[in-house]
Specification:
Largest sheet: 2 strands, antiparallel
Strand order of the largest sheet: 1-4
InterPro entries: FAM78
Structural class: mainly beta
Low-confidence stretches: none
Radius of gyration: 22 Å
Number of domains: 1
Order of helices and strands: EEEE
């Protein structure tokens, strides 16, 4: 991963690369729980996704302020639906 600033803004206090030195991502081991069930609504809670990382920045100007956050995305979901003893 290189500099995240556009080329025209590279002079704004960040020279060098941002590096991810450690990354841990996991899903809590508890099963999905049913919260509400009615003829029109099915509401459930899935296990939490947890992530942590250590990021190394190059020297930053004293006047710069940086805020780092996470964006979670999903590209695929698989649903296994069972209807009593009728199978999947």
């Amino acid at each position: 991963m290189g500099c995240i600033l556009p080329k025209r803004q590279k002079h704004l206090g960040l020279e060098g690369d941002i590096k991810i030195s450690e990354l841990d991502a996991r899903i809590d081991p508890q099963p999905t729980t049913l919260i509400e069930n009615s003829p029109t609504v099915l509401k459930y809670q899935t296990p939490h996704f947890r992530a942590a990382t250590k990021i190394r920045f190059p020297p930053i100007s004293g006047s710069d302020v940086w805020q780092i956050g996470w964006v979670q995305g999903c590209s695929n979901m698989d649903f296994n639906i069972t209807y009593g003893g009728l199978g999947v």
